[in-house]
Every structure is written in C-alpha cells, then in structure tokens.
Amino acid sequence: MVISNAQILAHLGDTGRVAGTLNPTAQSILFGDVADDAIDRDLPWITQVDRAHLVMMAETGLLPVAQVSPLLRRIDEMEGSGFAVLRGRSAPRGVYLLYETYLIADLGEEIGGVLQTARSRNDLGATVLRLRLRNVVSDLLTSLSRLQTTLLRRAAACTDAVFPIYTHYQPAQPVTLAHYYAGVAAALDRDAESLQAVLADLDRCPLGAGAVGGTGLPIDTRRTAALLGFSAPWTHSIDAVASRDAVLRLLAALGILGVTLSRLAHDLQLWTTGEFGFLTVADDLVGTSSMMPQKRNVYMLEHVKGLAAAPMGALTSAAMAMHATPFSNSIAVGTEGVKPVWSAASGMLDALTLVRLIVAGAEPNQGAMRLRAVSGQTNATALADWLVREHGMPFRRAHHEVGDIIRSMTVQGVVDLETAAREARPEWFRGTRSPVLRPVDIAAAQEHGGGPGRASTASEIERVRASLRSRRGALMEQRRRWRQARRSLRAAVDGVLGIAVLDRTSRGRYSQA
C-alpha cells in the first residue's frame, strides 16, 4: 500500500487540539524541507526504542500481541529498506510524527495508533539522546586510548633522546622525550577518567518518564532499560526529561581534553621548526607551499589546535541555551542545548587522530636536542645541587654563584658550563668527586620527584599502561553488554512475532473445526 503525502498531511493537519500543519517557513527552519537527514540521524535509534517498548507492553499484557506484532513487523520492514517510504517527504512536525503518522496511515489507527501508549516524545527523545551519546563517548575513549598507546610506545623508544624542557620558553632542565611523552599520556589519563564518568552517567534509561509526570499504566521500566543495554531505569520522571547535564559534562570533559591536546600540539609545532629542529615529521604528514619551495609545514597541528578549541565554545553555547530555563521538558534544553555536542565530539575525534599520526611519525634529532641542552646550560641546577651536596653550600648561595658564572659565559661567548666553572672556581673541584654535568647523565640520575630517570620513567609508563588496560577492559565489557542487549531485543521481538503466528494458526484451526 502506497501512502501519499496528502494522506500524511491529512493526519498531521488535525491533531485534535491543533488544526493545520506548521507554517512552511517555520517548518523549513526547524525540520528542513525533507526529512532524510533526520531519518538517518534519529530513526534507527527511535525504532530500537520502539521495539523495546512494544515488547515490554506485550509481555506485561498492556497491549495485546495482535496489536503489537503488526507494528513490530512493519518497523522491521521499514528499517530493512532504509526507511525508503519516508524519504523525500517533508516532516511538518518532526521526523517522529512523520514516522508514526505513516504507521497509522498504513496499519490503521487501531494498530498504528497504540505506539505512543504510556510514552511521550519527551522520554523517547531523552532515551535516544543517551543511546547516541554513549556510542560517541565510547568512540572518543577508544580514540584517546589509541593516542595514549602511541605516546607510550614512542616513550619506550625514546629513552635516550635527551633535550631541554622549557619553562617560560627558555631552556630549563634536561629530560628525555620518553619522560615528556609519558607525562602527556598521564595527563590524558585523567581526561579519559572524565569521559568514563560521563559514560557511567549515561547508563540510566529515561524511558517511562512520559511527558514529565510518568504514567499510571503499570509499565516495566527495568525491562525496557535492559533491552536497550542500560543498567537501570531513571527513578524520577521530571529529572529524566528535564536534564541534559550529561551533554554539559561531556563538553566540559572534551574542553579540558582539548586544552591538553592543544598544549601537546603547541610543543610539537615548536620542536619541528627549523629554529628548534628537535623532531622531523614524515613527508606524508606535512604540507608544502604553493610559492615557497623550501617549506615543510606541519599544518596538521594547526588543525588540531582549532579542533581542540571547539568544545569550549560548544560548552558555552549549550550551557547558555539551558541556563535559566524551567526544570522540565524544554526545547531550549533538549534540542538547542544539545545541538553543539555533535560537531564538537566529531571534531575532537579528528583532533585525536591527527595528533596521534604526528606523534607516531615524528623522529627525534638527538644531535640537535643534546646540543641545545648543553648550550642552554640546562645543567646549571645540577651544578648548584652538587655544591649543596659536596660543599654544604646553602642552595641560594649556590644558585647565585652558578648564575654569576653563566652571566660571565654569556659575555665571553662560552657555551659549556662545566668548563667555565672549572676555570672560574677551580677550588670547587679540588679533592672532591666531580659533578655529573652532562645533560644525558643528569636526566638519567633524576629519579626522585617523578623525574626523567630511567626507572622513574619506566614506572610511570607501566602505571599508565595498567590504567589503559583496565579502562579498555571496562569499555569492552560495556560494548559486550550493548551487543547482548541488541541480541536480547531481537530475540524478544522474534518471540512476540512467533506468538502472533501461533495465535493466527490456532484461530485458523479452531474456525475449521
């Protein structure tokens, strides 16, 4: 049976309280001219919720199988065709009502009209949002895990790559690239914890809250929650449909993650310049100039910075849309406040991938790194510490004495601090153990305070790896539970359809008798 647009509009044009469809200009702004984008975005999730709801209604006896089974069968057919019967149509009151109206026109009101029994678009929309978001967060956690794994792998390969870490853009102390990469991986671990907390918050199902005040029908919300892969139903109807704070928490977590990524991208961009020359990025990760033949532009890192900044803007936009609205169902909260999250999350996935490719493809230039560690006098603090340890000199005095030598070196154009110190203060070196002043040896000896020493760095790498293993295991279990829920839902649908077939067969035999 072919349902015409006129039939759809006739159903939508008279809802009882409201006659006529939405103003065409308003419809175009709010829902678009055709529903295809919304069909792709929302209907696969809506039909998943519909199946769980209809199965529960049949199992509890709130709806007879004879009404539920034709709906389930038609929903299967529509989804199997990619919702072809709805494509190219306008959705004058949104994609859900287009879909429901089509079912009513196709199956009749006695069957199609029962779909929203004990349910509203409000709890449906809140449930669909959480189904979509948990997949997004799962993908973000996976991508973040891959970046951390790459950082730790590169850390293990760069234990001898000594270079100066900078403070205030000035060379500070010698560390290893392994130590730096492990530190970034550790910072990202806290970002992963924040995303994991968002995923845990998404594990409650709002279905059953209705429009805002629940329902008087004895529905089984635990059953629908389980069929949709949630651990539990929501326990308060107003909170269930009013709250979209999971969006804000996700954007806040992504905003902080973006700060971490932007700082990593900033360092990598500096260290790949000709002025630093600490890292060389593979040819397939750089661009050139359309005019200047010498250029090797690591421009992907500029994209990372831009993409990583977007969640903060999205958080501000979402929070302001939700700010000072009634604590109930609200379009400003549930629609406008949610809009910014999708592009922000998608951009963050891209940023994570791009920076991972750069980290994996950046090779250290150890000669340039070590030379700058020496020329930047990054061994100055080690010399001051040696004076404290070997000569009992107060640190502030040792700090002043070493600084005075470095000032003289700058005037004289001398680079090597140890040579200058032996010439300026020979008495320091008589009858005592020589200080360890090679940057590579200093870095290896700095084991305390989480320094760049080999044992300290190896311990931190293993700590973050253990955290990664635990988080991956939890995510795999979560995804396994979601897959199992989909299988259980499919089996439950097939069970209801099987009962319907048996009922029809039994009635046929009875009538023949």
From TrEMBL:
Top-rank EC class of the record's enzyme: lyase
An example Gene Ontology biological process: L-arginine biosynthetic process via ornithine
EC number: 4.3.2.1
Annotated ranges, domain Argininosuccinate lyase C-terminal: 378-414
Catalytic activity, reaction form: 2-(N(omega)-L-arginino)succinate = fumarate + L-arginine
Protein name: Argininosuccinate lyase
Pathway(s) served: Amino-acid biosynthesis; L-arginine biosynthesis; L-arginine from L-ornithine and carbamoyl phosphate: step 3/3
A GO cellular component entry from the record: cytosol
Domain of life: Bacteria
Single Gene Ontology MF annotation: argininosuccinate lyase activity
Record flagged with keyword Lyase: yes
InterPro entries, per database record: Arg_succ_lyase_C, Argininosuccinate_lyase, Fumarase/histidase_N, Fumarate_lyase_fam, Fumarate_lyase_N, L-Aspartase-like
Domain Fumarate lyase N-terminal per the UniProt entry, residue ranges: 110-310
Keywords: Amino-acid biosynthesis, Arginine biosynthesis, Lyase, Plasmid
